[in-house]
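FORM 12-B: Structure-to-Sequence Request
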């Protein structure tokens, strides 16, 4: 019996694959960011790769940078990726990708080929963020060394998340979300822009992180407006914040409102909730946007008595008018200048007026250009900070 059991185990082991596809760390070059540029009719791929010896080193700082970049050109991006083996001593491992940076030139021509490659490759996870390099190449952004995070791609990833949570004019969009917007007939994509502030040459030097204040920095700047997979133009910071209010994508931010007797005060938005509803009025589409916010007084730069309820009400009303105005202006700008629905109003009409949507879905962008809407904003100030009136009043 024992011999029979042993024989069965031996036979079974012949069909067990084991770790047939294992990869040793010493054999891999771990990619943390891709940069996609155009080189004539070809694609130029830049890959930011971690130097594991520098990141894991316990011997203190050295003269080597924690990352390096490799670059290759190909008729397709996949071809360029494999061609990197001519310069990289190891095959590129892509499962830890954090950022995909696409240049403006590529985005204007269309990012469909780029997204097809990254979504098709089995090594790519879908949790990395996509941004558009503004006024520079994607390759240049991946060469800038950063403070706090030794790996620049990690700082780009964390900074985008922090900005979306605490400031609001940026949007951390993943691969799946971007593809969903492209294929949707009721919403067009909007993608955060990334630019370089300062000297490119200085940013590539390690001196950039050896100084207290870096002379060159990577900064997120505005949202890129797309029609399907092609870039049309850019929203400014205020318009980008309005976009995120409409998307109900504002966790916290800061806004400046005017005081009744001159000067201003800063309000910290602690919670924001947006409801967008669609209906038909006289057979025409109508969008109702309702924004409710809870805010704190963060700074006072005027003469105002915050111990009086009337003063608080005045600040709330001024804040309501300001937010309502820049949301309306953002919608009007997109309607008149870009003529595409990045706000997802078409999806709202699809959800709430399915019969109407079925008739107009193939011509929705034309309907969007003349779409009527109403914006209602309700700000309630809850807290005044650690004191009601400024010590300067005393």
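FORM 12-B RESPONSE
SEQUENCE OUT:
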């Amino acid at each position: 019996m024992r011999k029979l059991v042993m024989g069965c185990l031996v036979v079974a082991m012949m069909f067990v694959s084991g770790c047939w596809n294992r990869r040793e760390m010493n054999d891999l070059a771990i990619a943390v960011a891709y940069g996609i540029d155009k080189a004539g009719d070809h694609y130029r791929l830049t890959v930011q790769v971690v130097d594991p010896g520098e990141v894991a080193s316990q011997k203190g700082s050295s003269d080597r940078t924690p990352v390096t970049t490799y670059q290759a050109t190909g008729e397709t991006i996949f071809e360029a990726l494999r061609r990197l083996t001519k310069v990289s001593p190891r095959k590129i491992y892509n499962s830890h990708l954090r950022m995909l940076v696409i240049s403006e030139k590529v985005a204007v021509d269309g990012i469909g080929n780029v997204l097809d490659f990254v979504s098709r490759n089995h090594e790519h996870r879908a949790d990395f963020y996509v941004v558009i390099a503004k006024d520079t190449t994607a390759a240049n952004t991946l060469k800038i060394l950063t403070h706090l995070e030794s790996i620049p791609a990690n700082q780009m990833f964390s900074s985008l998340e922090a900005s979306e949570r605490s400031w609001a004019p940026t949007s951390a969009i993943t691969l799946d979300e971007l593809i969903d917007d492209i294929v949707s007939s009721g919403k067009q994509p909007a993608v955060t822009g990334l630019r370089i502030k300062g000297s490119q040459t200085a940013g590539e030097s390690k001196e950039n992180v050896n100084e207290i204040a870096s002379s060159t920095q990577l900064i997120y700047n505005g949202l890129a407006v797309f029609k399907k997979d092609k870039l049309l133009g850019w929203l400014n910071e205020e318009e980008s914040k309005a976009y995120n209010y409409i998307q109900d994508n504002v966790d916290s931010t800061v806004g400046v409102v005017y005081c009744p007797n001159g000067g201003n005060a800063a309000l910290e938005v602690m919670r924001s909730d947006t409801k967008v509803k669609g209906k038909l009025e006289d057979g025409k589409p109508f969008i109702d946007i309702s924004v409710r916010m809870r805010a704190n007084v963060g700074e006072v730069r005027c003469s105002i008595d915050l111990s009086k309820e009337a003063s608080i009400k005045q600040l709330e009303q001024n804040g309501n008018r300001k937010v309502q105005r820049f949301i309306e202006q953002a919608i009007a700008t997109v309607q008149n200048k870009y003529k595409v629905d990045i706000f997802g109003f078409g999806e709202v009409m699809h959800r709430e007026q399915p019969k109407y949507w079925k008739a107009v879905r193939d011509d929705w962008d034309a309907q969007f250009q003349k779409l009527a809407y109403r914006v209602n904003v309700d700000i309630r100030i809850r807290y005044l900070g650690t004191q009601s009136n400024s010590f300067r009043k005393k």
